[in-house]
C-alpha cells in the first residue's frame, strides 16, 4: 500500500501529461494523416521557452506565454514547411517532420547548451501538500493534475460545444469532406497544427520542471507519444486518453515492482542469479510502451478506440 | 526466327547497351577501388575510406526497403547491429578455437556470418513487421528498434553491456596474404566486400523478386491480381535487406574490432535513413552518393564545426522540400539535359538557383557559426579572415541578412517564372 | 465443353445494413463470352470483386471449374486461372510497358518469388511478353514508362496485364470506358483476339460493345439478376426494358443496329 497509492497517483499524473502531449498529435494525425515526428520537440521547446521566460519574469507568465510561442512556431512550420511537402505524400511528410526533429534538437543545443538547464518548480508550489502513508507528497504534482484536468475540460468544451469544434470533429472522421463544406482547409490544418503544438508546449511548461529540461527530452518522449496515438487509435481522443492513462499507470507501477523474473518463475527452475532471472520488472518499464505498440499494430491495427485503420 | 522474336530483339536492350549500363559501371567501380591505394592515402584517409565502404553497403541495403520496396523503416540498424554482433562473436570463436570449423574459418569471410545473422534477424522480425506497409510498418519498425536496443543493454552475455563485445581481427587463417593488421590491408577487405555488396544488391534488382518489389511498392493491389502475395514479397525483400545490412555489420566488426549495443539504437537507424534519402532513393546510385557524402561530413565537417548535425538536418529538410530526387536526382537531371542538348535552355535557371542557394547558405552558415561560438560561452568568437563576428557586431547582421534575403528573392523569382512557363 | 467455367449460387454481399448483392445465381460455360450489364450502382463491380477475391461473400458460393473460391485471397484465385482488369486503370505507373506485362507473365511461368535468376535472361518470359505486347499492339511503345501512355493505351495495357498470366477465365471491368468510337472498335477487336478460346466475363456500359462481343448477357439490377440469355432474348425482355429507362433503353436498340 505504501508504494501502491502514491504510484497510482503518480501514474495518473504522468498519464495526463502524456495525454496533453498526445492529444495534439492525435488531432494532427487524424485530420492530416501526418504522424508528426517533431511533436515532442515542441514539448521540449515549451519547456525551454518557459525556462527563458522565468529568467526575467515568473512561472505564471511562462505558463501562458510559452505554449503560445510553441504554437506559433508550430503554425509557421505548417505554413512554410509541411504544406509544401504535402503534395509528395505521407512518407515525405513523415520524413520532413523527422528532419525537423533533428533540426530543433540541434538548435536547442546551440541556444541553451548541451546540458540540462536549471528550470525549477516555482517556489509558491514547492511545498508538501499532504502526507501519504508516511511520505511527503509534493504540491506541484497536484498542480499538474489541476492543469491537466483544466485542459481536458477546456478541450472537451471546445470540441463538443463550439462551432470550430464541430468542424474539427467532422474533419477527424471524414478529413476529405470538410473541404466540400466550404471551409478553408489549409487554414484549419495550420490552426490545428499550431494548437496541437501549443498543447505539447504546455506539457513542456509543466513537465519540464517536474522531469528534467535537457536537449534529449524530445528524443526520450517522442516515441512514447507515438505509442499513445497508435494504441489509442486514429481519430479518437477518447482512445488517446485511455491509452495515456494506461501507459502512465503501467510504467509507473512497473517501476515500483522490484520483483525479478527469477522470483516469479523460480518454480520453473529459473535461478535469480542467472542473466534472465536477474531482470526485474522495474527494468522492463521503459520497454512496455513499445511492446504495446508492436502488439497493438499486429493484433488490432485500429487501436483501442479507432474508427478506421491507418 | 519468328516475326515476334525479331520484334522482340528491338525491344530488349542491345548487348552494347547492356554492357554500358550494367557491366561498365562495375568495372569502373572495381578499377576505382583498385587504384585508390596507388595514390598513397594516409592512415586517416584509409580509415575514412573503410567507413565509407561499410556505409555504402548499409545505405544500399536500407534502400532495398525504402526506395525499391516503399517501406519506411526507423530501425534498420537492428540488422546491421545483429549481423555485426554475430560477426564479433564469430571472431572471438576463431581466436579461441584450437580446431574444428572456427579454427579454419578465415576472418576475411566474416561478413558472410554477418549476412547470415542479418538474414536470420530479418526472417524473425520481418514476420510480424511485413503484414502491413505504410505508416504501420514504420511504427512497428520503430517499436521493434526500441525493444531490441533496450534488450541490447539488458543481455550482457550477448551484447557485452555498455562496453560492448571486442574481438581481434589478426587471428585465424590469412587469405590473399592479408594479415588485416594495418588499415591499408583492412582497405582491401572492405573494398572486396563493398564490391560484393554493391554488385549483389544490383543483381537483386534484376531478379523477378526485385522487380516484383518495385511493383508492390507502386501498386500492391494489382500485384495480388497477377498471382503474388504482397506480404510475401515484402517479407522476402525484408530478409534480403536485413541480410545485406548484416553484411555491412560484419564489415564493421572487422574494421572496428568492437560492437556496442549503441549500434542497434535509433541513432544509426536515423543516420542511414538520411544517407539514403539525401543521396536519392529513386536511383540505385543515390544511397552510394549519400553514404560517401555523409561519411565525409561526419568525419571532416565535425572537425571544423560542432554544428555539423545542424547542417545535416538543414540539408535533409532542403532535400525533402526542394529536391525529392536527392543528390542523384539533381545529378541525373543535369546529365539528362546535357545529353538531350537542352543544357542551354536550363543552364540559366540552374545557375540562378545555384547562386541563390549559395547566397542563402552563406548567410545561414554565418548565423550558425556565430551562434555556435556564442553558445560555447568560452568567450570565443567566429573569426573568419580576421573578421571579428559577434551578435553585437552590426557587420555580422549585414553578412547574415543580406545574403539570405538576396538568395531567397532570387530563388522565389525563379520559382515564379518557372510556374509562369508551365501556366 | 458443357462444364461451367464459373458458377455462382445464392451469392450475397452486404456492407453493414446495405445489401449490395442479394442472391445471384449464374452459370457461365467454358469458352463463353458473357456480358453483365445493368444501370449504375447495380453492383456489377461488387460482383467482380466477389468473384476475384477482393471481397469475401456474405453468403453463397463462387465456383471456378467446380472448385469453391469464394473468400479466397486474390492471388490464390489468380493462380487458379482467373484474372481480372479494373475499371480505373490499375497499372504499374513507374515501370515501362514491357515491364508491366512481364510482371503479369512471371508467376505463370514458374518464376514466382525467384531471386536467383536474372530477369533479362529468362527467354520464355521475354518471348511471352513480346507475344502479348504484339497481340495488343503495344509493341512499339514497349519501352515507354506506363505513366506516359495516352489514356486508351493505358486501358489496353490494363487488359494486357490481365491476360498476361495465361488465365483462361478473364474478367474485364468496363474495358472501353472513356474511349472514343474508333478506340472502342479497336479495343473490341483486340479483346476478341486476345480472349480467343477463353471464358470472358465483361462488365460494359456501351451496348454496341456488349451486343458485338457477348454470347450471352445477364442484366443485374439492384444486386439481382433479372434476366439472362442470348442478346436478342434479353433485348426483348420487358423487365429489362423497364429497368432501362429513357436514353439507356434506346441504347438497347442501338445495339440492335450494330
Overall pLDDT of chain A: 84
| Low-pLDDT windows of residues of chain C | none
What class, by secondary structure content of chain C?
alpha/beta
Indicate the overall shape of chain A.
globular
Give the total of domains of chain C: 2
Number of strands of chain A: 2
Strand % of chain C is 15-25%
Task: Note the main sheet of chain A.
Answer: 2 strands, antiparallel
CATH secondary-structure class of the largest domain in chain C:
Alpha Beta
Multimeric organization: heterotrimer
Mean pLDDT of chain C: 85
Annotated CATH architecture of the largest domain in chain C: 3-Layer(aba) Sandwich
Low-confidence stretches of chain A: none
> Which fold name corresponds to the CATH topology of the largest domain in chain C?
Rossmann fold
Strand content of chain A: under 5%
**Biggest interface pair, residues each?**
A-B, 43 and 42 residues
What is the ordering of alpha helices and beta strands of chain C?
EEEHEEHEHHHEHEHEEHHH
Spatial extent as radius of gyration of chain C: 18 Å
Termini separation of chain C: 29 Å
Large-scale geometry of chain C? globular
Described by strand count, sense and barrel closure, the largest sheet of chain C is:
6 strands, mixed
Organism (chain C): Litorivita pollutaquae
Domain ABC transporter (chain C): 6-247
GO molecular function, one term (chain C): ATP hydrolysis activity
Keywords (chain C): ATP-binding, Nucleotide-binding, Transport
TL;DR?
Chain B has 423 residues and is mainly alpha-helical. Helix content of chain B is 75%, strand content 1%.
Topology:
The complex is a heterotrimer of chains A (310), B (423) and C (258).
Chain A: H1 4-32, H2 39-56, H3 59-85, H4 90-112, E1 128-132, E2 135-138, H5 139-161, H6 163-173, H7 177-180, H8 185-208, H9 217-232, H10 237-255, H11 261-264, H12 281-284, H13 288-299
Chain B: H1 3-11, H2 15-35, H3 43-69, H4 77-96, H5 101-104, H6 110-129, H7 134-154, H8 156-159, E1 165-166, H9 183-205, H10 208-218, H11 220-224, H12 230-256, E2 258-259, H13 266-279, H14 286-304, H15 308-322, H16 326-339, H17 343-376, H18 394-422
Antiparallel strand pairs in B: 1-2
Helix pairs in contact in B: 2-9, 3-9, 3-12, 3-13, 3-14, 4-6, 4-12, 6-12, 9-12, 10-12, 13-14, 17-18
Chain C: E1 4-15, E2 18-29, E3 33-37, H1 44-52, E4 59-64, E5 67-68, H2 74-79, E6 82-84, H3 97-106, H4 123-135, H5 151-164, E7 169-173, H6 181-194, E8 199-203, H7 207-213, E9 216-221, E10 224-229, H8 231-236, H9 238-243, H10 247-257
Parallel strand pairs in C: 3-8, 3-9, 6-7, 7-8
Antiparallel strand pairs in C: 1-2, 1-4, 4-5, 9-10
Helix pairs in contact in C: 3-4, 3-5, 5-6, 7-10
